[in-house]
Amino acid sequence: MDLEFTAEERAFRDEVRAFIRDNLPPALAEKTRQRIHLDKADFVAWHKILHARGWGAPNWPKQHGGPGWSPVQRYIFDEECATADAPPLVPFGISMVGPVIYTFGTDAQKAKYLPRIVSMEDWWCQGYSEPGSGSDLASLRTRAESEGDHYVVNGHKIWTTQAQHANMMFCLVRTDAQAKPQEGISFLLIDMTDPGIQVRPIISIDEGHSVNEVFLDNVRVPKANLIGQEGKGWTYAKFLLGNERTGIAEVATSKQRLKRLKQIARAEQSCGRPLLQDPDFRAKVAAIEIDLLALEYTNLRMLAAENAGKGVGPEASMLKIRGSEIQQNLTELACEALGYYAAPYEHRPDGSNQPPVGPDYAQGRMESYLYYRATTIYGGSNEIQRNIIAKMVLGL
Amino acid sequence: MDFQLSEEQTLLADSVESWLQDKYDFDRWRKLVKTDLGYAQENWKTMAELGWLGISLPEEAGGLGGSAVDTMLLAERFGRHMVAEPYLSTVILGGGLIQVAGDAEQQAEWLPAIAEGTAKWAFAHAEHGSRFALNETRTRATKSGAGGWTLSGKKIVVWDAASADRLIVLARSAGGDTDEKGLGLFVVDAAGAGVVRQDYRTVDNRRASDIQFSDAPVLAVLGDPAHALPAVETVVDQAIAFMASEAVGAMAALHETTLAYAKTRKQFGRAIGDFQVIQHRLVDMLMQVESARSLALLASLKAAAEPKERAKAAAAAKVQIGRSGRFVGQQAVQVHGGMGMTDELNVGHYMKRLMMIDTTFGNADHHQRRFAALSD
Description:
heterodimer, A: 396 residues, alpha+beta, four-stranded mixed beta sheet, four-stranded antiparallel beta sheet, 46% helix, B: 376 residues, 11 helices, 51% helix
C-alpha cells in the first residue's frame, strides 16, 4: 500500500499543470468560475486547446486517438483541470458515445466518428429520456421502423442536455414492439441536421438553458448508423451509463468548490470574525470536507482496482450517490455563506458595464446551487442508484 | 387550550383564499413577476379595499386592530400563492415599526395611508459584514444643524425599496459598531437627496436594492434615536411570525403538489407513489410541514408576549421553517424528477422563495444560536 504518487505520476502532474498554466485563457477560467451554462464556443475552445496537445479524449486508449493514460493519470488530469478552473469537458462524445463506438461499433463507424469526437468537430447529445420514460428508461417509446436500408424514427426525447449545440445524437429507439421492453431497444446514431428533427429549449430553475426536448418526426436514419446488433441497444446503453456514473462523482470539481467555499467563508464576516472561524459554520465545512475525503479515497480505491485490470462494477453507483450529494451540499453551503448576498439574481450579459451586486465571489453561486439540484436526478436518480446497489451488490 | 379559529377569522381566511384562487394563479404570477414593478399596483389597491392592508393596524388609523393570528391567516395564503406585493415590507415592517416605535403624531400621520394603500415603506437594516446581527450597524446618523439628522452608510438587500415612498433605516447615532445601544430608526424619503439605490431582482423574483446613503436628510426619527433595538426586535419577530406562516403555505402547497404527482406519475408500470422510498419521503415532508405549522402558530400566538418568550418562539419558528423549507423544497424537486427542475413548474419557485425566507432576518443557524442564548 502506498498513498503517494510515483515519480512518473508526479512528473506527469507537473507536465499537465504547466500545460494548463500556459494554455488556459484566464478569461475562460474566470467565466468557468462564475457560470454553469457556458457558451458552445467556450467548451469548444478549451477542447481544441487540449486536442492540439493530443489530449482531446483523455480517457481513451491510444489506438482510438486517446493518450492511453492510466486511471491514475486520468485522475491527476481531472484534478489539475478543476484546480485551474478549466471548463468541464463535454462528456457526450468522449465519455459517453465514444467508448460505445470503439467497443461495439463497426470499423466504418469508428473511422468516421472517433476522430471527429477527439477533435470535437462533432457535438453529440444523448437521446435517452422521454416524457414517460425517466427512471424507467426501458419503457421508452420512440420507435424506429425498418424501411429498406433506413430506419424511420418517430418520437420525443426530453432533458437532452446541450442538444441546441449538437449536430449528432446517440439515441435509444424501439425497433421491436413485441419483445420484452429491454430486448426491443436499439442504439442509433442520428444526424441532428436531418429533416424532421426539432429542438425545443427547456429553461431550468436557475433560469439557464442547458436542457431541451427533441422531437423526431419521420427522421430517416441509415441502417449503417446502428450500433452493434438490432435489439441489443439496452446492453450498450447500460455500458454507457456505467461509465457516466464514475464521471459524475466530480471529485476534483468538488475539491475546487470546497476551496472556494472556504475563500468565501474567510472573506465574509460573522460576529466580528471571519465566518470560517464561526464554530457552527466551521463544523459544517469540516463535515463536508470529511465526506469529500471519504469519497475521494473510495474513488481512488476503485481507480486502483481499475488500474489493476479489474473492471468497475455496480459499486460505481456509490460514487454517483455520494458525489452528487456532496456537490449539492457544497453549492448549498456556498449560498449560505453569502448570507443576504445569496439573494440578488441578475444575469448580466457578457461585457456588461453594470457592476455586479455584492462581492465577486458571490457571482454564480446561487445558479450552481439551483442547477446542481439536478445531480441527484440525472444519470439515473439516486433512488435508482440505491436500487442498483441493493440488487447488484447486496443481492436483495 | 383552543386552536379553533373564530368565525371572523374563518371568513377572512376563506375570502383571502378565494380571491387568490381567482386572481393569483401561477400563470399570472409568472407574468407579474417579470414586470418592472414585480407585482401589480391594482392588486395592492384591491388589498386596501378588502381591508387586508389594515388588519394589523389600529382602528384609529383605519385598520382592523387585528392580532398576529389574523395576519398569520393572510400570510399562509400569501405563501401558498407566492403573493409578490410588498405586504411584509409596508404593513408588517413599516406599519409595525411606526406602531411600536413611533409617537402618536407619527402614527396618525403615516398609518392611515398604509391602510388605504397610498403609501409604501421599506425597512433598511442589513449591512455587508454584519451577516444577520442587527446590532452590528455601521450606518451612521449624525446630528446636523437645526436639530435634524443625516445618514451615511450602505444598506444591502433592502426588499421592496424600489417601489417604496419612504425608508425606515436602522442606523447608529452613538456607540461602537457592534453596541446594542446607540441605534435609532430614521425615516428617509426614498427618492430624497443623498439616497442612491442599485435595484435588482432576487432569486425568488422579488425586488431589492442596495442603498448608499450620503448625508441623506432624515425626515423623522421613530422613538429614541439611541435605544431602538428592542422595538426593532419586537417587529422583526412579528415579521418572522409572518414569514413562518408564509413558509407554511408554500410548504403545504409543495407537499400537496408532490403527493398528487406521486399518485399520477407512472414508472415501471405503476404510480411512483407505490414505491416505499417515495412514500417515506412524502411522509417525512408531511412531518416537516406539520412541525413548521406548529411553530409558526406558536410564533404568532407569542408575537405580543413578553420579550424573552416572544423571541424564543420566533427563533424556534425560524429554525424550523428554515430547515423544513429547505427539505420540503428540495424533496419536492427530487420527487418531481426532471420536471421539478423546470422553470415552468411552480415547484422550483416555491423552493427558491423558501430559501429566501430562511435567509431573511437570519437563517436557521443564526436563530438556533439565538434560541440557545435565550434558553435556561
